[in-house]
Amino acid sequence: MTETAPRKVDLVDRRRVYDGYFKVDRCRLRHELFEGGMSGALQREVVARDGEVAAVLPLDPAAGAVVLVEQFRPGPWAAGANPWTLECVAGVMERGESPEQLVHREAREEAGLEILQLELMHRFLSTPGMSSELVHLFCGRVKISGQDNAIHGVKNEGENIRTVICGIGEALSLLKRGKIANGKTIIALQWLALYHREIIRKWRQ
Fold first, then answer.
1. For 137-168, how does the pLDDT look when each residue is reduced to its tens digit (9 = 90+)?
2. Is 157 a catalytic residue?
3. What are the b/e assignments for 7-42, b being 16+ CB within 10 Å?
4. Which of 51, 133, 159, 205 would you label with 25, given CA atoms 20 to 30 Å apart?
């Protein structure tokens, strides 16, 4: 990787143009070019997150199974795809909340699970071309006890969430067959394919 990669960004103007469930900022900026010098002024809209996001793939090492959650999502509905998606447990951090605290809270709310131990998988920007959303992605050790097809969620937030218990092989088969359409969950299951033996061995010690 070159040591002379562009680094400089000059912000000309930034203003909030939408302030609803999501926030949208319109930015005018210039950035350094690979060949040197600066670009002309560019206008770009950014979906701005008030808080970072954290997600967890619950894994029971004794059962050799993971827990996914299924819920309605307006994004795939608007795209003409199946709007009931299989996903990791996830949420947006509240003020003063750490990523670890968030996934403990969301695991209880969305799946009725207590996280016993956490392993960081990745930190990444979900859609760097349009959003400031930073995702902290974990694998979480749990003990599964009859949560398959259980219904969870915070009702006053409009949540209607079903838990789906999958053996590791079954979960990876869903990934291979293109049945997982959520980016966080694709990354989590790809990590699981690489490291599930290692993490199960670690958590069984």
1. 999 999 997 667 788 888 777 778 999 999 99
2. yes
3. eeeeeeeeeeeeeeeeeebebebbebeeeeeeeeee
4. 159
Burial per residue of 131-167, b for 16 or more beta-carbon CB atoms within 10 angstroms, e otherwise: bbbbbbbbbbbbebeebeeeebbeeeeeeebbbbbbe
Please state, in angstroms and rounded to a whole number, the distance separating the CA atoms of residues 112 and 109: 6
Give the 3-state secondary structure percentages of the chain, helix then strand then coil, rounded to 5: 25, 40, 35
Cα–Cα separations (whole angstroms), residue 23 to 50, 72, 76: 8, 21, 20
Report pLDDT digits (tens) over 123-138: 999 889 889 899 999 9
Nearest to 121 by CA among 164, 184, 73: 184
Predicted TM-score (pTM) of the model is: 0.87
Q: Amino acid identity of 93?
A: M
Tokens matching residue 76: 């795939």
- In the set 45, 157, 170, 198, the catalytic residue is 157
Domain boundaries, the chain: 9-48, 53-204
Contact indicator for 16, 101 with CB cutoff of 8 Å: no
Give the pair of three-digit tokens for residue 27.
Answer: 């930015």
Mean pLDDT, rounded, of the chain: 91
Are the beta carbons of 138 and 98 closer than 8 angstroms? Answer: no
The region of weakest confidence among 2-6, 91-95, 111-115, 186-190 is: 2-6
